Amino acid sequence: MGNAMLSTPLIYQSKLLCFSLLYLFSTLFLALYTSLHPTQCLFRSSPFDPIQVPLFSYPPTYGEHKYAIPTNRNHCSSPVYFSDYWIALQEIQDLCRNSTVSSQDLRYMEGNGESFGGNFSNQKRMSYFHHLNDSVEIPCGFFKKFPVSDSDRMTMESCNGVAVVSAIFNNHDKIRQPKTLGSKTLDNVCFFMFVDDITLKELNHHQLISRESFQYSVGVWRILKVSSTHLYENPAMNGVIPKYLVHRLFPNSKFSIWIDAKLQLMVDPLLLIHTLVVSKKVDMAISKHPYFTHTMEEALATARWRKWWDIDALRLQMETYCENGLEPWTPTKLPYPSDVPDSALILRKHGPSSNLFSCLMFNELEAFNPRDQLAFAYIRDHMNPKLRLNMFEVEVFEQVALEYRHNLQKDRTSIREISKPGKPKRVSQDLFVNSSCCSKCQKYLFEMWGEYHN
Predict the structure, then answer these.
(1) What does the pLDDT look like over 9-20, one tens digit per residue?
(2) Model confidence pLDDT, tens digit, residues 292-311
(3) In three state form, how does the secondary structure of the chain look?
């Protein structure tokens, strides 16, 4: 018996030591697995077979931002259940093949104009909010030719399924590649990035494209050059064209995703469309604003933080909306949970309601300014037919996209300062300072503040 004990190594004679070693090795393995796994989440598997290899390698000189703006969300938890990839792929393919809905379900005005959008009066714009007669033509931009090449135009028209669209004007952002794409996504989804000549020059400087070619691409993105000299002086307003007239630029696409260039897509577009639009049976999906619920909150912040340079024009815009029926959000507006979206990501099913909403939005933005959150609820609440809308939670937005900061201007001048015409006006920093007693938005403000005090 004594000999048997002596022949057993000392390390095996202590159960506590054995358990301690097992715990140590298990912990090291799990820590190593979590740190090396693409999602950095413990045993989290992907719902499809994503393309894991990088889609494009940028040269070091391009200076792509390494770190996204942080959020408070735990990236290992999911606030939404995404569809199975193969089911989503099959259903979207069937919808695209069998759909008879196209942008032709609306009739659009044609003609020549001094501005791209026609520059209609407020009364004229409002007359199109109730679209109950399909024979009535709707103003929807293109009163001047959209300045892209014929080859680019043909490519845009050949996109028959899902169009993912973005834009960079005035070299305001970096091009970022989407992540976790499914193995069949690039066969069913078109990626288009609109740029102006300033941005194109920067891409050429970093050798991302060749100016000798007539067709450009950076990773999955097909680059479309827009001659901004034939459009608006304001680069932000030029970005509004592909953002809200996507159904006209891509007349044969059945679905679209607009994504601001400051975002990087982290979930496959087919999953986004299927989960947030198709499964919800809506015309459009957009995130709620992370802080604001009422339109006037966004308007006051726009003025206070100088997001738009002409405060007098902002005041006129809000008083116009208040005079014509804009009201603060209340539970009576449900199922719309908010009046203010985060419009950096917009998912659409192209059809009469979503196309009409997009046209009406564009007309308002041309009339006032490209701050689209200000016109959103005014149009949504007054248009007919009604828009079936999925305003999803901020946590969903933070899961499906990463946000980066804009490029720094070399002269430290913001894009809104670059684009403002003429001499800046000396106006108050707030919309209704010393004028709330006489403002046409007095009732709105009292109802909004009164709701806060209850």
Answers:
(1) 555 556 676 777
(2) 999 999 999 999 988 898 99
(3) CHHHHHHCCHHHHCHHHHHHHHHHHHHHHHHHHHHHCCCCCCCCCCCCCECCCCCCCCCHHHCCCCCCCCCCCCCCCCCCCCCCHHHHHHHHHHHHHHCCCCHHHCEECCCCCCCCCCCCCHHHHHCCCECCCCCCEECCCCCCCCCCCHHHHHHHHCCCCEEEEEEECCCCCCCCCCCCCECCHHHCEEEEEEECHHHHHHHHHCCCCCCCCCCEEECCEEEEECCHHHCCCCHHHHHHHHHHCHHHHCCCCCEEEEECCCEEECCCHHHHHHHHHHCCCCCEEEEECCCCCCHHHHHHHHHHCCCCCCHHHHHHHHHHHHHCCCCCCCHHHCCCCCCCEEEEEEEEECCHHHHHHHHHHHHHHHHCCCCCHHHHHHHHHHCECCCCEEEECHHHHHHHEEECCCCCCCCCCCHHHHHCCCCCCCCCCCCCCCCCCCCCCHHHHHHHHHHHHC
